[in-house]
Write a structure and sequence with these properties.
mainly beta, 168 residues
Length: 168
């Protein structure tokens, strides 16, 4: 009976250490902040088919720290009335781009109407599919809720979500 208790206690200790080690290695970073930037349109080879929306914005007020998000979304006129209204890819550069820390994500978006000022209202959900540097193997998601001035290309709004990174 004593051996069974010892084995049970040792197993419990081992599992506790293993679970705590995993929790220490994994880090959860919350993203909640404001964004501001601009975007431009680049026509497809046949402009009647659509265009690429290329843009970037920055944020400095998140737990993640300062970052710049670059994105490119093809907008195909034939699919405008079908949800999601846009799909694309984005790369979030954290801090100084020279250090190689970035997060890679895929996005889907829609246009739920207009913002209070008449700008285009866009809501995009990005799924994090990896990264480089300290964000290698990152997972998670974030949502962009923003207003876009179609004339100037200026955009601003909020970002919120979670990034899960693994330790060394």
């Amino acid at each position: 009976m004593n051996n069974i208790k010892r084995i049970s206690l040792m197993t419990a200790i081992f599992l506790t250490v293993a679970l705590v080690s995993s929790a220490v290695e994994a880090g959860v970073i919350r993203i909640n902040g404001t964004i501001a930037g601009s975007e431009t349109e680049v026509p497809f080879l046949d402009p009647a088919e659509g265009f690429y929306v290329n843009g970037s914005f920055t944020s400095t007020d998140t737990q993640l720290g300062p970052f710049t998000l670059f994105y490119s979304d093809p907008l195909v006129f034939a699919f405008l009335d079908m949800p999601p209204e846009s799909v694309g890819a984005s790369r979030l550069i954290v801090g100084d781009a020279a250090n190689g820390d970035s997060i890679v994500a895929c996005s889907i978006g829609n246009n739920p109407g207009s913002c209070a000022n008449g700008d285009i209202h866009l809501v995009e959900t990005d799924t994090i599919i990896g990264g480089t540097g300290r964000y290698a193997g990152a997972i998670g998601s974030f949502t962009l809720d923003r207003c876009l001035n179609a004339v100037t290309g200026e955009t601003s709004g909020t970002i919120s979500g979670t990034i899960v990174v693994r330790g060394p």
